[in-house]
């Protein structure tokens, strides 16, 4: 249902594009193009595949999502790099290197991936991320699937990068080996690594290697895993203070494809209802707005061509003067708007600062407790490091919601300012009544601009680095620095293993480090203040001026039309066009 609606939407939008093209309505054409991109972007689901090494992730992705063996698989640890698989009419591999360069390949995929994502491959260390474009039906429907290194891979840095993807994923498929179900790492993952209800809500546990489980043992295995999962979930629920429903547990075999149909159905059900339907509904509304806009433009054309040529020529002259006046008015508008927006950005920064303070206290408190409770049982540095990282990650996850709420509030306030200013700036002076819509457009346009930055900011806090690259704020990565405290952890551990008190004292080192990192972060955020205001103002200015130029173009075109065609024929033509438009 969802997929049919999605393709219907794309089809109708394409028809509208052809329609607008024929009528030569330039502005709208650009809007339609970006709307088409928006549909593709917003109606794409990111699915992350997680699990211990050899749990069958790569095999599963090959069989389930792309239907052929592309990703390298092996009985020993294999995948060493995150691999993102997307739809591509033309199949290719894009290797993104740590130094920022990239290379493309169009054939010999298996071999290339062996050298680049498989452990031991000679290029592996130089690579940041690998993208594989495959012409598969499943991906074409709008799925982006991410293959990850085994979570129990000894290289913790890899695990950090993988976990960084969690909050970006629309759904997580967590593969468990049915033959050795519910290992320590799986228990730990549920209890320690994922700590927001939102993240847990999107997990599907897949009991892989189902082909190797005897018929008469299957019920028992499921029962066992369920019971263990419940135990872990109880701990998580207590910590979050929220009851968490048990995630789905689906037995599958990546080898024999057992239960693939069940999984496919459930996954689509989840993705389309949870995320897709709302978005789809909005997009349909947007299509109607575009249609309405085109209709208004046609009506304007009809009205214009009713006028005498002389009248049109005069209007064109007036328009030129009006553009000059508009430029002046925009400057005044800008002056009035700037302090208001600056004020909002400043208080947003202040709120973020408070949040960081709270976060810091929380981290220190959690760390102290954990160290206090666990110190006797910790024998090696790796364990100690793990405690530190997990505590930090946990605190950050718990604060994540608050951060997002802050940002939402900030956006709302900006919107309100724009709304108020919009009513003060008497738009009727500038546009025909229909064009008042333009400011709404600006808001639409502006939202993703800021949100991209703030999203990256959240990511930077959570993951500590650029995962998908190109992030504006990716260079600011507080957690990365904090996670790098692994080194500090080591020193503390070595110095004071026997002296518990000493370890607790050394926590101040961590506190200082967090302070430093956060203050650097805040400084950068403040530095972006002007950039945010400028972006908003630039958008307004451009849109207003563009609207004017468009109007000028329409006047000129009307004059041309009048030279070539008879007025009543033109009216009939445009009226037919309106009827045609309504059917799209
Ligand atoms: N019998 C059986 N074998 C499987 C199944 N899934 C995977 N395998 C085999 O298990 C081995 C490991 O599979 P991979 O797909 O490489 O596992 P992975 O999770 O990607 O492993 P890493 O990349 O090392 O994290 C391969 O030899 C697969 O052929 C399954 O459902 N049943
Ligand atoms: Mg693998």
Beta-strand content: 5-15%
From the alpha carbons, calculate the radius of gyration and give it in angstroms.
29 Å
Work out the helix count: 18
| Largest sheet report | 9 strands, mixed
What ligand species are in this complex? guanosine-5'-triphosphate, magnesium ion
Q: Please report the total strand number as a whole number.
A: 9
Low-confidence runs = 426-499
The amount of helix comes to: 55-70%
Shape: globular
Taking the alpha carbons of the first and last residues, their distance comes to 20 Å
Mean pLDDT: 77
Total discrete domains: 2
What string, H for helix and E for strand, traces the elements in order? Answer: HHEHEEEHEHEHEHHEHEHHHHHHHHH
GO molecular function, one term: GTP binding
Keywords: Coiled coil, GTP-binding, Hydrolase, Membrane, Nucleotide-binding, Transmembrane, Transmembrane helix
Pfam families: Dynamin_N
Subcellular location: Membrane
What does this entry look like structurally?
There is one protein chain. With 584 residues, the protein is α/β, with parallel strands linked by helices. It has two domains: 46-173 and 211-216 and 251-275, Rossmann fold (3-Layer(aba) Sandwich); 311-578, no CATH class. It is built from 18 helices and nine strands. Strands 4-3-5-2-6-1-7-8-9 form a nine-stranded mixed β-sheet. Helix 1 (2-23) runs antiparallel to helix 2 (26-42), helix 2 packs antiparallel against helix 10 (260-306) and helix 10 packs antiparallel against helix 18 (567-583). The radius of gyration is 29 Å and the shape is globular. The relative contact order is 0.10. The structure holds guanosine-5'-triphosphate and magnesium ion. The site of guanosine-5'-triphosphate has 23 residues, from helix 3.
